[in-house]
């Protein structure tokens, strides 16, 4: 009966979506173009190098090398193998959904157990520094100093999530941990080099094929990501047109009133639950006297990821045995902890430096923030050309593969 109701529900939602697309074709097209523009200009060119690099590092055994080296850190801190450090670092550098992509690949290569992969996915899908500093703090709030507050709240809370998730199904994974630790008897650096060499020697594909497959797999994933961005851009617009967003935001406004948050932020926050960029843009545009409520909500949606990102992660995990539920729980946890940290750190990381008349951004980031902002603007200029170039390359690789197979 449950499966029958699910069929009715899914069919009903799809039919309603189709009817709305027919009823509002111009608005749906405009929303699609906005989503496509964001994907082609920023998302594709910024994530592609990281995806390709990740595939190559996996193929050449570098991830195995890092796994052995970082085992003494990752295992006690997050209860995952050292190989998880690669997903954590790449996730922080490039943003979502890189962490899910790498966790899925590590699971496919049997470098993680199912439970370890679920733990890893829960804390490796972060927002990138480029997005926090370039798009949010400078692009939307026009204040680079806010990027430090948002970034510290985001990454520290994400680490807390990883530490808390280490206790997820602890008993079930105890035997696997013991087996894994028994493998390390030689000096750690020598053992890491041996593991890297053995992994590379197992790779039977020639270098050209490895490169081609890395490009192809990365582009396939990014095309899927683009599809979700466009879909959710349209869905959010349609929900707004039929006033569903307004009705649900009324409930959110009641909760905000109880929490002392301006109710005008209810609708922007609801939009942010679907798509981060849209929600952050609407929140930044609301004219209220107090800045902290805006930052608290932006921190939450950055940690929550938005349903658009969550759908991308679910699609990546669907090809493996990694369950989506732990990741979803961790998103709520990340959003709540990030919001609390934003409240706690607002005075020391933002207000104190502004009132003391010091430089808006600490010395370590003073030169990097303008650079990140310039990089973000540069991507919007050359991004579409990079997207077209690599889509063409993938078409050529696919053609050659089909010709060879045929």
Could you please describe the fold and organization of this structure?
There is one protein chain. The protein is mainly α and 406 residues long. The chain has one domain. It is built from 19 helices and no strands. Helix 2 packs across helix 19, helix 4 packs antiparallel against helix 5 and helix 6 packs antiparallel against helix 8. The longest helix is centred in the last third of the chain and has 38 residues. The chain is globular. About 4% of the residues have low confidence. Keywords: Membrane, Transmembrane, Transmembrane helix. This is Sporulation integral membrane protein YlbJ.
CA distance, first residue to last residue:
46 Å
Main beta sheet strand tally, sense and closure: none
Number of domains: 1
> What general outline do the C-alpha atoms trace?
globular
Q: How many helices?
A: 19
Indicate the radius of gyration in whole angstroms.
22 Å
Average the pLDDT over all residues and give the rounded result: 82
Unreliable stretches covering 5 or more consecutive residues? 178-182, 358-369
Provide the helix percentage: over 70%
Secondary-structure class: mainly alpha
Helix and strand pattern: HHHHHHHHHHHHHHHHHHH
Number of strands: 0
Q: Classify the beta-strand content into a percent band.
A: under 5%
């Amino acid at each position: 009966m449950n499966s029958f109701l699910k069929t009715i529900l899914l069919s009903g939602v799809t039919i309603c979506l189709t009817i709305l697309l027919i009823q509002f074709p111009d608005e749906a097209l405009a929303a699609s173009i906005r989503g496509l523009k964001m994907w082609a200009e920023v998302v594709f060119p910024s994530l592609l190098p990281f995806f390709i690099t990740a595939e190559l590092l996996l193929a050449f055994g570098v991830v195995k090398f890092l796994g052995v080296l970082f085992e003494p850190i990752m295992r006690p801190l997050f209860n995952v193998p050292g190989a998880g450090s690669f997903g954590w670092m790449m996730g922080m550098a490039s943003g979502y959904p890189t962490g899910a992509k790498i966790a899925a690949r590590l699971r496919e290569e049997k470098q993680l157990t199912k439970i370890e992969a679920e733990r890893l996915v829960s804390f490796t899908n972060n927002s990138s520094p480029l997005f926090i500093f370039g798009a949010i703090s400078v692009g939307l709030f026009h204040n680079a100093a806010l990027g430090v507050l948002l970034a510290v709240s985001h990454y520290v809370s994400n680490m807390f999530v990883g530490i808390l998730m280490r206790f997820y199904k602890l008993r079930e994974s105890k035997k696997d941990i013991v087996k894994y630790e028994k493998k390390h008897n030689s000096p750690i650096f020598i053992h890491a080099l041996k593991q890297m060499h053995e992994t590379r020697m197992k790779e039977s594909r020639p270098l050209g094929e490895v490169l081609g497959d890395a490009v192809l797999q990365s582009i396939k994933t990014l095309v899927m990501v683009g599809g979700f961005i466009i879909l959710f851009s349209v869905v959010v617009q349609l929900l707004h047109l039929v006033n569903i967003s307004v009705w649900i935001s009324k409930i959110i406004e009641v909760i905000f009133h109880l929490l002392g948050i301006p109710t005008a932020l209810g609708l922007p926050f609801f939009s942010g639950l679907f798509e981060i960029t849209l929600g952050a843009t609407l929140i930044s545009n609301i004219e209220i006297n107090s800045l902290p409520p805006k930052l608290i909500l932006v921190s939450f949606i950055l940690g929550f990821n938005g349903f658009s990102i969550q759908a991308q992660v679910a699609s990546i995990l669907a090809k493996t045995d990694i369950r989506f539920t732990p990741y979803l729980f961790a998103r709520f946890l990340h959003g709540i902890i990030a919001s609390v940290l934003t409240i706690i750190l607002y005075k020391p990381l933002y207000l104190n430096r502004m009132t003391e008349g010091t430089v808006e951004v600490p010395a370590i980031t003073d030169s990097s923030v303008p650079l990140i902002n310039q990089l973000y603007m540069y991507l919007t200029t050359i991004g579409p050309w990079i997207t077209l170039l690599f889509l063409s390359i993938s078409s050529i690789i696919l053609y050659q593969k089909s010709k060879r197979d045929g």
